[in-house]
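We modelled the chain as a single entity of 382 amino acids. Its sequence is:
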Amino acid sequence: MTHSSSPDTSGPIFVAHEGGKLESVPSKPLRDRKDLSMLYTPGVADVCRAIAQDPQLSFTYTTRRNTVAVVTDGTAVLGLGDIGPVAALPVMEGKAVLFKHFGNVDSVPVCLESGTVEEIVEAVVRLAPTYGGINLEDISAPRCFEIERQLKERLDIPVFHDDQHGTAIVALAALINAAKVVGRDITSLRVVIGGAGAAGVAIANIFRRAGIKDLVVCDSRGIIEPQRSDLTEHKRKLAATTNPLGLRGKLGDALLEADVYVGVSGGTVPESDVAKMADNCIIFALANPDPEVHPTVAHKYAAVVATGRSDFPNQINNVLAFPGLFRGALDSGAPQITEAMKVAAAEAIASLVDNPTATQIVPSVFDERVAPTVARAVSELA
């Protein structure tokens, strides 16, 4: 990748990242020969023999019990695209900081050179004995779907692609409360999702599981429906499970009298299309840094507006979901994170807003109740 000019590294952002954002700190003291013989040889051999006989003991006597691998190949990093694994490392370090701060979960960035689906799956499977869970991050669609599917089949620890399911969990939490604000049953809403990548597919799936039936998904070419001949495999599945009215055409056609628009695609939705939505509608424009519908436009037509940005009300932020989700999965020894756990996590997040309003449909990311509440909801289903 070439750059037209060198970045100015003198500013506070670069200073904050100097030396990275993580360090290793022993959890046991090493003071003398006795400690050395207990923590390392010869004492450690007793623990090794026990684990060799019963590998599950690794979750009691090693860091596996509280450590997640944050895995990426750098192919879909934030809004930056395919910038590669080395350039993705600051993001993965940041994710590890969030895991620790919000969920007290230790995590290690694992940035892999991009390869085939099978190569990435094999690499993660071979690394997995070190970890209690795998958090997939910033891997491009559609390969991310197959990578997650294969890893879930081959591993007996939780595997979770946060770009898909973290976004979907928080979007459902927000919609549960937005529906209360507008006085609607969530299952009665007519929903349009703009974007059929990782987040769009996961949002569609969790919305359907939550009971929403009138759901349409659009990609850059328009409404996803069975008559289209250009659909990839994951879009063919969407065509078979969404769009019950058989709509055809562009996003603007789907938005006619729609109650909800969820944008996870980037680009800009014309105001003339937004104006077609039903009265008292809900708009979640989640692209960062530029929402598909800017809040100043959205507020002309919508009763509730959310974005992915921290400088507007109602930020749909994955950090509300993944720390508590893994906290609950690790604490309960769950071998996987199920669809039911994801819905329960969304309901738990929504429950923390006692009286939802147009400007508060999700709790603050700094609400200390969030991760423990989500963890309890997940643990109960393990």
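As a brief sanity check on the tokenised model: DSSP finds 16 helices and ten strands in the chain. The chain has a mean pLDDT of 94.
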